[in-house]
Design a protein that fits this description.
Elements: E1 15-20, E2 23-32, H1 36-44, H2 46-52, E3 55-57, E4 67-72, E5 80-89, E6 93-98, E7 101-110, E8 113-121, H3 127-145, H4 163-174
Helix pairs in contact: 1-2, 3-4
Length: 180
Amino acid sequence: MIDHEQYTPGPASGAQVRKDGDKWTLILVRELRHSPEKVWQALTDPAHLREWAPFEADGSLSTVGTTVKLTAVGAPTPQVSETRVIRADAPRVLEYNWGGNDIRWELEATGLGTRLTLWHNIGSRFISMGAAGWHICFDVLDHLLSGTPIGRIVGGEAMKFGWRRLNSEYARQFGINVPN
């Protein structure tokens, strides 16, 4: 069992970038040893999101048409965005817009649990930073679902836990300069 202070992220992996005109999409894939139903709950329930996600949600993200306020955690200034759930096919696909960026979660049942894929439309200069941040969030999510929560690690807190290294590794993987 590991606690918050002992956490160290593994190497950059499971990520790719797609560019369509001016639109950039970060795609991250993570294999989780948990059922799609359990992962779905962690993606949609505010109490679960509070444990791992880079935002607080004031309501559930599990119903199409629902408007939820998402507040970025760890940002230098408060960033609140009204988010409308565009698609919620439990426990397979969840789509919403967060801060002007489209987010799509795909959950695929596997023999060992769930293949979780995140599609995040993001500005080109934030691609490696986003990959590094989501990498850490996915690790924290996996610990939460395994019953060994280590607490959310986002924003400035992530700097203490290998975010800079991951940012550099993802930038190299994507063939871009490391953003400052």
